[in-house]
Design a protein that fits this description.
Oligomer: homodimer
Largest sheet of chain A: 2 strands, antiparallel
Structural class of chain A: mainly alpha
Number of domains of chain A: 2
Strand content of chain A: 5-15%
CATH architecture of the largest domain in chain A: Orthogonal Bundle
Low-confidence stretches of chain A: none
Number of helices of chain A: 5
CATH class of the largest domain in chain A: Mainly Alpha
Radius of gyration of chain A: 19 Å
DNA sequence: AGCATCTACTATAGGCTATCGTAGTTGGCG
DNA sequence: CGCCAACTACGATAGCCTATAGTAGATGCT
């Protein structure tokens, strides 16, 4: 997944994808499409606003380059498939983000996360601890 | 801190700032400057490579816009000051990033973090656990 | 064969970063 | 007192990326 950047001031998907990219993945995931063509996406987006076929096509192509969609020739057109579910994508994003965090300083990052979790929900700390125990056990043998 | 975006494929500071921006903040922080002018930065950067005064100036200006440097007129020039230390910046970034993860659900975020820490350094898990215990104690009493 | 439809390629506009040219100001020196 | 060198801000340009659309080629139905 190359060329992804984050805009923390944006919400949800839009933090990781540009607006039109996000709109498109939103459609694909919410419709549960396993495979689709550009025209399918365009038809769907057009219900909300005017948008040219070619605009959608270019952006779908970018999503392909970014590794979110795979594609395959089907005669004259391409058929696209989502490479991952929305949850998988979120998770991949989170991994990337946490990766950058550790570059900034692991311990500090961890401390922040612990703080944040504790502040929002003290109960979660228990689950957190349990998870670490489990992981330690796994690693230990 | 507006207009900051992340490039997870980059290392450290460069994940949060563009290359020249990062170079400049690196200089400012590593020199421990409390206040400085564009010329100071340029002189320093020029030890490594050729770079025009104006290039530095423009980028310092952007760092001001992004909220990393405050500035004040001093006759014909500006005097700049870092708004935060490197650690404070890291922390602010981390907070922003973790904020974008809120879409995830804390539990999932935690699981990912634990995995990641365990993968990169099993020993850290111990510190991690200790941190949680401490936090629990704080909350409990 | 002819027209409407579908699609990919390519081009353009706008935004952002990195880079520098230029022109205006200031301070020191003859 | 005037001139030159140094310093500085502003503005311009090139390059990259996103969003958007125009156009031309292929296909299929009549």
């Amino acid at each position: 997944m190359k060329g992804i950047r984050f805009r923390p001031e944006q919400e949800g998907l839009r933090a990781a994808l540009f607006d039109l990219e996000a709109d498109i993945m939103e459609v694909v995931w919410s419709k549960g499409w396993k495979e689709f063509a550009v025209a399918d996406v365009q038809r769907e987006l057009e219900r909300k606003r005017d948008i040219a076929y070619t605009t959608v096509m270019t952006t779908v192509g970018r999503l392909h380059e970014k590794g979110l969609l795979s594609r395959e020739r089907d005669g004259k057109r391409y058929v696209y498939r989502p490479c991952m579910s929305r949850d998988e994508f979120t998770e991949a994003m989170a991994r990337d983000l946490l990766g950058s965090l550790s570059g900034l300083g692991h311990e500090q990052a961890i401390a922040l996360l612990v703080d944040q979790v504790a502040d929002s929900d003290a109960e979660e700390l228990g689950k957190f601890e349990a998870l670490i125990r489990k992981k330690k056990k796994e690693l230990g043998g």
